Amino acid sequence: MWARIIFPLLFTIFVLPQLPQARDDFSRQPAGQVILTRHDRSDSDPQQVHISLLGSDHIRVSWITDDRQAPSIVEYGTESGRFDVKARGVHTSYTYFQYSSGKIHHVKIGPLEPDTTYFYRCGESGPEFSFKTPPSTFPVEFVVVGDLGQTDWTASTLAHVDGQDYDVFLLPGDLSYANGHQPLWDSFGRLVEPSASRRPWMVTQGNHDIEILPNHPKGFVSYNSRWPMPYEESGSTSNLYYSFEVAATHIIMLGSYTDFDVDSAQYKWLEADLARVDRNKTPWILVLLHAPWYNTNTAHQGEGESMRQSMEELLYKARVDVVFAGHVHAYERFTRVYDNEKDKCGPVYITIGDGGNREGLALDYEEPASPLSLYREPSFGHGRFRILNETHAFWSWHRNNDADAIVADDVWFESLSTSKACWDTVDEQVSSSFSKDEL
Ligand SMILES: [Fe+2]
């Protein structure tokens, strides 16, 4: 009894402060209150249900039960209440200091039809859920939100996200802000379930997801156990970096907190992955990572620099269209950039780390503003990247303080896959001026 009280107390006092945390030596606006989402289902009922893409026509359904005997089974079909197909999957669990996770279930279902609503039930018990698969062709819409956390700002962000339809949720790191307090991963899973059970959530890791302990020296035990992504399907050997394709869009999730130098497995995988991309088949390439390579906020200055120096040339030569990052708790949009210069063949860099974390906003920017930075604002919100066709996409950023219909920042994109000038000069740096409103 006393051990159950004293050990977590000692852990909180002595161990947690040693875990990787965000630097906090910069100005932040007060954050929202942390929401602890209660567990109000039976031990055998599924909780924390979320789905992710698994290959071109499959979905992974993930959930947790307190009951260790609950089966890893998903029943599903295209009519509510009628589950014609049954799939059996795998389960795992982990321990972290004095914490033991519930039974974590992962079940692969499919093949599924594109752009179709499916109804499903987990573990042959509990409530019915539903999701819609992404379309196989354009248009397709991605929601992008980093540094989500679990505050009342998080709830506000998710309410705005779900206020308008979309196809896939992309999260460039820092999910639960548990920072070692494992029950906060469970609370986070319950908070996001209404959103994450109805649209695929594809994530990459942030610094708050590391959670190194002596018996978990590589970290990520909770992140990897709860949020497995389709890394094997893209030839990766790590859940910390992978790629996938949705509706003629190639999306690369990079790991800011695993090795990225030129001799690393991640670098070699990225090089091979980019070489496999066929821009006739997937004219758009999006990249997500956590620590931004370009950033004029005073928060987290230079933290993405070594990764940029290692990998930027690979993305540039592949004519990646846009790079989304989190980590800095604010919104910032850059022009097309390569090696710190405006470059019409480089990616647009966007920081979208304003999902609702418990640390608050990063308010201070470097002055004078860099001409590379076209829009910057510390407000909570989310972004939408709507790809209309092979050549054009529309990016919009939505503040939580505004009504759904209000767009705080927007810009049209033209895919670099169609820029003959950029492909003719793929091995050399090309610079020229261009309009702010068409990139
Ligand atoms: Fe972060």
From TrEMBL:
Gene3D superfamilies: 3.60.21.10, Purple acid phosphatase-like, N-terminal. It holds the Pfam family Metallophos_C. Residues 142-331 form the Calcineurin-like phosphoesterase domain. Keywords: Glycoprotein, Hydrolase, Signal, Zinc. Its cofactor is Zn(2+); Fe cation. SUPFAM superfamilies: Metallo-dependent phosphatases, Purple acid phosphatase, N-terminal domain. InterPro entries: Calcineurin-like_PHP, Metallo-depent_PP-like, MPP_PAP, PAPs-like, PAPs_C, PAPs_N, Purple_acid_Pase-like_N. It is an enzyme of class 3 (hydrolase). It comes from the Eukaryota. Its EC number is 3.1.3.2. Residues 46-133 form the Purple acid phosphatase N-terminal domain. One of its GO terms (molecular function) is acid phosphatase activity. Residues 346-403 form the Purple acid phosphatase C-terminal domain. Residues 1-22 form the signal peptide. The keyword Zinc applies. It catalyses: a phosphate monoester + H2O = an alcohol + phosphate. Belongs to the metallophosphoesterase superfamily. Purple acid phosphatase family. This is Purple acid phosphatase. It comes from Quercus lobata.
